[in-house]
Amino acid sequence: MNIKKAVATGLQEGLDTTWNLAKLIIPIYFVITILKNTPFLSMIASFFQPALGLAGVPGEAVVALIMGAFVNVYAAIAALLPLVHSLPLSPKQITIIATMVLICHSIPMESAVSQKTGVPFWLVTVLRLAVAFIMGILLNKVM
User: Fold this and answer.
1) Per the count of CB atoms within 10 A, which of 13, 46, 50, 95 is most buried?
2) CB 136 within 8 A of CB 57
3) 96, 136 in Cβ contact below 8 A?
4) For 22-36, what is each residue's pLDDT tens digit?
5) For residues 77 and 93, what is the distance between their CA atoms, to the nearest angstrom?
6) Residue 71: alpha-carbon gap to chain centroid
7) What does the CA dihedral 79, 83, 84, 88 come to, rounded to 10 degrees?
8) What is the dihedral of CA 37, 38, 44, 48, to 10 degrees?
């Protein structure tokens, strides 16, 4: 393979990937930015604050956790970006949220795959959510 063709192929694949991520991230970013300026986000945050407070993160982080759990990691990042500066989130809190998202990301897809191996869908879902929450609490204690 010649260099020109390799560069052209790599550039095209990079642009395709960027476009696919942008189609997901940009709308979520704008929706969360709008929600941030309405009472709706603060209502959601106050509902989840007692539980997320144990993990040392604000209730608003639930948006990123939900997006990560039910969509994917990129959606969680898009939901978290508008909140990072307005809350503000510390490096410790970002680490805790990221760890929780990485443990329980893409639950519908990954639990369905696990179900094909014989593990019940509900068991995988509950286990991953519980482990994410427990890890958040543990990280809050040790960091």
Assistant:
1) 95
2) yes
3) yes
4) 888 888 888 888 888
5) 14
6) 8
7) -160
8) 40
Q: Tokens for 38?
A: 């309405």
43-47: long-range contacts (C-beta < 8 A, 24 or more apart)? none
Distance CA 121, CA 95 (A): 28
pLDDT tens readout for residues 84-100:
878 889 999 999 999 99
d(CA 83, CA 32) in angstroms, rounded, equals 8
Amino acid at 1: M
Record the pTM.
0.83
CA–CA distance, 10 with 3 (Å, rounded to integer) = 10
Distance of CA 122 to the CA centre of its chain: 20
Q: Which residues contact 76 (CB under 8 A, 6 or more apart)?
A: 64, 65, 67, 68, 97, 101, 105
- Encoding tokens for residue 96? 């805790």
Give alpha helix (H) positions in 37-72.
39-54, 62-70
Cβ(97)–Cβ(132) below 8 Å: no
